[in-house]
Specification:
five-stranded antiparallel sheet; 196 residues; globular
C-alpha cells in the first residue's frame, strides 16, 4: 500500500513500512523501516531524519525508494530490485546511488520501476515485467512518452504518448490491457483504439 499527499509546498509519501516527506526547502526526511538512505545511518529510525537535500520528487514502494534531485539525477536504495546492476548474491543497497540522469518522472512498483527522461523516453527496470529474479540496468522501452502509469506490482504499464495515443503492456489478467482479449501473457505494446 502506498499513498501520496501534497500539502502546498510539502510532499508526503507513505508506504506500509516507511514515510518520506519533502519539505519546502527541498530536503527529504524519512522515518520507519527500510528508509535508511544515508551511510552514517545504518539502522531503521522511528523519528523524522533528514536523508538528503535538493530533492524534487520521491517514489516509494514497500521496501525501496527512488528520488529525483533538482539536477534531474535519479537515486535509488532499498531492498530488492532498485535498478542497478547486481552481482550474486544480491545485497541490499542502503546508501543512495545514482541510477541515471535527465529524469523528469519516476515511479516504483513491487519489483522495479519506470522513469521518463527529458527526451520523453520511457525506461523500465526490469525491462520486462515477467522478469523478477534479477536487477538489470534500466532499459529504454518506448519513445515520445508524455505520461506513464504502472500497476502496484508492475504487471501492467500504460503509456500516454505525446501524440495523444495510449499504449498498454503487461500480463492482461482479466483483460486489463484493453486490447479486446483475455489472453494471458500479452507483453507486447498494444495501442488502445483511438475512439476510447
Amino acid at each position: 500500500i502506498t499513498m501520496d499527499f501534497l500539502f502546498s509546498s510539502v510532499q508526503l509519501h507513505y508506504a506500509i513500512n516507511h514515510t518520506f516527506l519533502i519539505d519546502e526547502n527541498n530536503a527529504l526526511w524519512a522515518w520507519g523501516v527500510y528508509c535508511r538512505g544515508a551511510q552514517k545511518l545504518e539502522k531503521d529510525y522511528p523519528t523524522p531524519t533528514k536523508i538528503m537535500e535538493n530533492v524534487v520528487s520521491v517514489s516509494v514502494s514497500d521496501k525501496s525508494v527512488a528520488v529525483i534531485k533538482e539536477d534531474g539525477s535519479l537515486w535509488t536504495w532499498g531492498l530488492g530490485t532498485v535498478g542497478r546492476p547486481s552481482e550474486y548474491p544480491f545485497t541490499d543497497e542502503w546508501v543512495p546511488k545514482k541510477l541515471m540522469d535527465h529524469v523528469i518522472y519516476a515511479k516504483l512498483y513491487g519489483n522495479g520501476g519506470v522513469a521518463i527522461t527529458e527526451d520523453h523516453t520511457l525506461w523500465r527496470w526490469p525491462a520486462d515485467s515477467r522478469v523478477n529474479s534479477y536487477r538489470p540496468e534500466p532499459a529504454a522501452i518506448m519513445e515520445d512518452v508524455a505520461k506513464v502509469a504502472v500497476s502496484e506490482y508492475g504487471g501492467v504499464t500504460c503509456a500516454l504518448k505525446q501524440d495523444g495515443t495510449v499504449w498498454t503492456s503487461g500480463d492482461n489478467r482479466n483483460g486489463s490491457l484493453g486490447n479486446g482479449s483475455l489472453e494471458y501473457g500479452t507483453y507486447e505494446w498494444t495501442k488502445i483504439p483511438e475512439d476510447v
